[in-house]
Amino acid sequence: MKLSNSSKLLYWKKLIFILTAGWIIIFAYRTLLVPIYPVISQYFGGVTNAQLGYISSCYFLGYVCMQIPSGLLVDKIGRKQILIPSFLIFALGGAIVALSSSLLMVYMGSLIAGIGCGTFYGVAYSFTAKYVPATQKSLATAIVNSGIAMGSSIGLISSSFLVGRGILHWQYLIVILIIFILIMVFVFKRFIMPEEKLINNKQDSQSSSSPLSMNTANISLWRSLSRPPMIAAYILYFSTLYTYYLIDTWLPNFLEVEKGVAATSVGFMSSLAFFSAIPGALFFSYIADVFFKKKIQIIITLEILAMLCLFVAVYSSNTNIVTISIIAYGFFGKLVVEPIIIAWFGQFVSLKRLATTYGVFNFFGMSSAVIVPSLTGYISDIMHSKSYAFYLGITITLTGTLAFYIITKLTHNVKNNATS
Asked: Mind giving me the DSSP string for 273-296?
């Protein structure tokens, strides 16, 4: 079945809505436990920060381990065929956490939930790379990414308010989320078309890709994945996500313990970074689409501004300054720069290997998320402060940004010398 042009337009817009909703559910689950670590610690008889950090680390371990295998499977048998069973596994992992009577069961459930969520990245961004018009890729990706911000905010605020005030038991909150996961399974089944119905002719495929991506179609997988621009993107994404998941997993606890923010307010205060990311992402992604050749400069500028804002938030003892800095970080940070990085990265990706390449890309980025939660807990236990972990994250991100700049600059100069 070949889709008409009007059907294609309607379908990719429908996909954007579905993918956004998927990220909302995933990130609501991912941030749900973060503001209530003290509650969970008390529930299990008092555990260390490092042990609490392992909850997120187990989730991210499962998530990261699925990146490359899921990419290969998606490219081989189709997105929908992978997405539905993956979300059922996600629901299973959540159910184990909701029924946990020991911290070990929480670790196991988190690992399974991470495995279930691990296919979504490759599916989501291979969809946008393939079906969204090239002139709207950054903006469309930013809209999809807004689901991350909304989901994170929902998770932080709901658990901080409902559990922090004793309205709802923390495990019951997970049960509610499982219901929404199952609703998403129905949405995937009902509204995502089978892969065979989306096969377009060669001209259609070429129209949605860049010349650079078409030139990589016949290059071996290893050569395609190890070119200098790809390596630069891996380094940048790892360093960007390192700081983001430091904030995602430990900022509420840091604000409560070291900045004196009330337990019932930390979720809302932390969510400000996610709320401010939505307008920031839409604005800068639009700018990046308009000034297509300036994407690298925009990326580097945003990375530097975000780290400066985070430094001020960590260093300052004034609550108002901390709040403003968190908002500013959100406006310039990971959720804002990520769509631009993904759109820039997409020009080097072959249409035949979309999910696999994005899976490898996200594998490097999400590897940082496996390290951050437990390492930060360990640093906190040793140094009696998480400030040092935040300063380490800022240093890593700035170093990764510098490496990205040097590699892309050298690659550009070599290319210019070769053509001159």
From this structure: HHHHHHHHHHHHHHHHHHTGGGHH
Cα separation, 86 vs 82, whole angstroms: 6
Q: Which domains does the chain have, with CATH numbers?
A: 5-419 (1.20.1250.20)
Nearest-angstrom CA–CA distance, 123 and 325: 34
The DSSP-derived string for 295-336 is: HHHHHHHHHHHHHHHHHHHHH---HHHHHHHHHHHHHHSHHH
Mean of per-residue pLDDT scores for the chain: 85
Report H helices in 201-227: 202-207, 211-215, 221-225
275-324 residue pLDDT tens: 899 899 989 988 988 887 889 999 999 999 999 999 999 999 898 999 99
Q: State the average pLDDT over residues 175-200.
A: 83
d(CA 363, CA 365): 5
Amino acid identity, residue 158? S
What type of residue sits at position 109? G
Please tell me the predicted confidence (pLDDT) of residue 92. 98
For the stretch 365-402, pLDDT in tens is 988 988 888 899 889 889 989 999 999 999 999 999 99
pTM metric for this prediction = 0.76
**DSSP E strands: which ranges in 352-410?**
none
DSSP string, 87-108: HHHHHHHHHHHHT-SSHHHHHH
Please say if the pLDDT value at position 339 is more than 70: yes
Distances in Å between the Cα of 68 and the Cα atoms of 84, 129, 240 are 18, 17, 20
Reported as type and span, the H/E element at residue 74 is helix 67-77
Cβ 86 vs Cβ 120: under 8 Å: yes
Residue whose token pair is 């291979």: 126
Q: Of the candidates 184, 176, 198, 194, which has an alpha carbon nearest to the alpha carbon of residue 84?
A: 184
pLDDT band at 1 (very low <50, low <70, confident <90, very high): very low
Residue type, 393: G
Query: CA-based angle 207:189:122, to the nearest 5?
Result: 50
Residue 83: partners with Cβ closer than 8 Å, 6 or more residues away: 119, 120, 123, 188, 192
Buried b (16+ CB within 10 A) or exposed e, 105-141: ebbbbbbbbbbbbbbbbbbbbbbbbbbbebebbbbbb
pLDDT band at 178 (very low <50, low <70, confident <90, very high): very high
Q: How far apart are CA 19 and CA 339, in angstroms?
A: 14
Asked whether the predicted pLDDT for residue 406 surpasses 90, the reply is: yes
